[in-house]
Amino acid sequence: xxxxxxxxxxxxxxxxxxxxxxxxxxxxxxxxxxxYVQSPGQGLQLLLKxxxxxxxxxxxxxxxxxxxxxxxxxxxxxPSVHWSDAAEYFCAVLSGGYNKLIxxxxxxxxxxx
Amino acid sequence: DAGVTQSPTHLIKTRGQQVTLRCSPISGHKSVSWxxxxxxxxxxFIFQYYEKEERGRGNFPDRFSARxxxxxxxxxxxxxxxxxxxxxxxxxxxxxxxxxxxxxFFGPGTRLTVL
Lengths: 113, 115
Hints:
The complex is a heterodimer of chains A (113) and B (115).
Chain A (H helix, E strand, L loop, with lengths): L2 E3 L4 E5 L4 E3 L2 E3 L6 E6 L5 E7 L5 E3 L5 E5 L4 E6 L8 E8 L6 E3 L3 E6 L1
Parallel strand pairs in A: 2-12
Antiparallel strand pairs in A: 1-4, 3-9, 5-6, 5-10, 7-8, 8-9, 10-11, 10-12
Chain B lengths: L4 E3 L2 E4 L5 E6 L6 E7 L6 E7 L2 E5 L6 E5 L5 E5 L8 E8 L10 E2 L3 E5 L1
Parallel strand pairs in B: 2-11
Antiparallel strand pairs in B: 1-3, 3-8, 4-5, 4-9, 5-6, 7-8, 9-10, 9-11
């Protein structure tokens, strides 16, 4: 069955430090992968997506993610975290076409000044 | 332009009651999807509607139903509410019916509490 695992429930980083959020997926075919961010009281906002081609994907707000088929991973990175990046981050895989996304449980990011 | 809007923002119901949640997609968008997000978990897919037809259904009981209107707005109905139905219900809209070809945008959600 298709699934997404985000191993880290909570992560705390200092402002200005680098960030890497882990995501592992289970999917039989070539996956369509997404990263979303959710701030308190708000809906989900798309950060970036991977469909095919270059395995390093650039997104909004300075985020990037790297698709590694051999490791079934799609980790999200940012070289320098800002206090406004504190939020919950979700990795997702598109399942079976149309708009059905399977989400991971999320990683809550806290940023220390 | 307005984004995806959902109403009400918050809702409190008791077990056994029925609830209707509403979603207005971004103007021009023809696809609406519904997700349930239980506290501490990622969103789970409930339904997708495109051009008023159901395009996908998640693993939810028949107590959950939805429909899409000619103006592409949508309602999610939940009957015989259980405590476990307490969650944030998210609506998302997109122009086409597949994320392989376009992006979907999420609304802020409706927080349902079942007592």
